[in-house]
Amino acid sequence: MPDLFTPLTIKAVTLRNRIAMSPMTMYRSVDGLVGDYHVMLAGARAAGGFGLVFLEQLAITPDGRTSTSCAGIYDDSQIEGLRRVTSLIKEMGAVPAIQLGHTGRKGSLLKPWEGGAQLPADHPDGWQVRGPSALAYGGDFTQPVQALSQEEIGEIHQAYADAARRAHEAGFEWLEMHFAHGYLGASFFSPIANKRNDEYGGGLENRLRFHREALAAVRATWPEHLPLTVRLGSDDLNAEGVQFEEAIYAIGRMKEWGIDLADLSLGFNTDDMKEMPFAMLAFMAERAVRMRRAVDLPIGISWNLGLPSEADRVIREEIADLVLLGRPALSNPHWPVWAARELGHADPFGLLPQDSSFWLRNFRSHDACIGWPEAAAASG
Fold first, then answer.
1. Cα-based distances in Å from 293 to 290, 313, 318, 321
2. Largest interatomic CA distance in the chain
3. Is 19 exposed, middle or buried (0-12, 13-18, 19+ CB in 10 A)?
4. What does each C-alpha distance from 230 to 151, 160, 212, 352 come to in angstroms?
5. pLDDT grade, residue 377 (50/70/90)?
6. DSSP characters for 215-269?
7. Is a pLDDT exceeding 70 seen at residue 379?
8. What is the set of domains in the chain, with CATH numbers?
9. Packing angle, helices 308-316 and 335-342, rounded to 10
10. Catalytic residues, which ones?
11. 363 or 140: which carries more pLDDT confidence?
């Protein structure tokens, strides 16, 4: 029976454990480039014991960013900085992962701590947002949306292919397509956002055409021996939107199209959601069980898994194969070591690089002074 610290092998890649740092938008880029901050952020988590380390979603086009302060992979000049990140992640024993995406109608924003407003197309830091249909998201996303033409959809798919080529050149070994959170892939999937009457809209198979073609474009340039995965908005929590049964069908089809793992999240194609589960521990677990039962494919989940006991449970009970942590990874770069101590792992410091693990295993002073709180299991 696997646990949180059991290696996971997918194709030619083996993760040292089942713990991933989830992509998080940090608003630290200039001209789409990553820099010292990103090297620090990713390198520290790799050195802290995470098995798989993502940066933020990397935009495949300039207008695919959330803001002008977000990172991208739409130009060859961005490869060098990304290579610095992947090199350090690998040196620290983790696998570097990339998430490709396009924010669609939810882009052109100010930073959240600057108000997060959606900027008009004529603002110096704004642009014309695009989506499957000329339908604004609503709420705080008020700017008009330009419906993509079929020619523009083809250009986006070519941008996916070019981004995948750059990702391989930059040294990434795991590629995820972001089709969730109300971004472009999610909006094509959802009848709330997709009102098209051509072959990209209407029935479920048509609404998946965008994804099939995007995956085919990436598969043509991304090496076959490396994992290709998808984060899918599997439920809009709205009667008019994506239902989980549709997500089961979609993942089954995407398996046929070459994906190796499904990372389940929510659609967020509307703020009008029912029975919002965000205060519940491991609330994606039930959906993961249903997906595994229906589709024979490794599953990753996130959302409220920052307690080591919960993260370990979803692996031990074979609910999911991979746990993705966002804010817990941000708050504690050594979350895997803390989790290992809490769960009674025989060698928690063995998760660290050799130099750190040597000195921490051979600590000769007072145990309480090592810099780690006493494990709850040990104290009571």
1. 5, 18, 11, 13
2. 71
3. buried
4. 24, 13, 12, 29
5. low
6. HHHHHTTS-TTS-EEEEEE---SSTTS--HHHHHHHHHHHHHTT-SEEEEE---S
7. no
8. 8-334 (3.20.20.70)
9. 80
10. 183
11. 140
Are 177 and 214 in contact, with CB atoms under 8 Å apart? yes
For the entire predicted model, the pTM comes to 0.96
In 3D space, the residue among 89, 19, 5, 98 whose CA is nearest the CA of residue 47 turns out to be 89
Tallying the residues shown for the chain, one arrives at 380
Structure tokens that stand for 205 in this block: 């198979």
- Please give the distance of CA 182 from its chain centroid, rounded to a whole number: 13
DSSP single-letter state for residue 139? T
pLDDT tens for 85-127 read 999 999 999 999 999 999 999 999 999 999 999 999 999 999 9
* The one-letter amino acid at 301: I
Mapped onto helix, strand or coil, the DSSP state of residue 308 is helix
Mean per-residue pLDDT, 265-290: 93
Tokens encoding 367: 């145990």
Contacts of 154 (CB under 8 A, 6+ apart): none
Contact yes or no for 37/70 (Cβ under 8 A): no
Amino acid at residue number 342? E
Residue with tokens 């999911």: 320
